[in-house]
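Bumping with the actual sequence this time:
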Amino acid sequence: MLPTSGMAALLSLPINKKETTIMAIKLIANYSKRLGLPGYSSHQFEVSIETEISNTSELPLEAERLYGSLQAAVDAQIQQVGFVPDEHYGIQPAQKPVPGAFGSQTTSTSSVR
């Protein structure tokens, strides 16, 4: 029965008061990129982020937003290449004994002309 102008409306509250806890959904997103460089070298950069959403219906939009943000951050940073070794980096020149010298004396073949 609907309350009318002469009647009081009573609201009944449940006897067993249970707290309803709304749990957040934690999203963890990672974006990584590796670029090959000359001389079999490469460099990589990765960014990770955690966020929370309150409803699964937010997932597609939030995932798209996170991916775009992470991709932009990685792409902006990975452009700074830093040290790039040349094709001779890490290769030790062959050691060749100096003629007439004792066995402990050697010279690099790169310095012998």
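The tokens above came from a reply further down the thread. Helices lie at 59-78.
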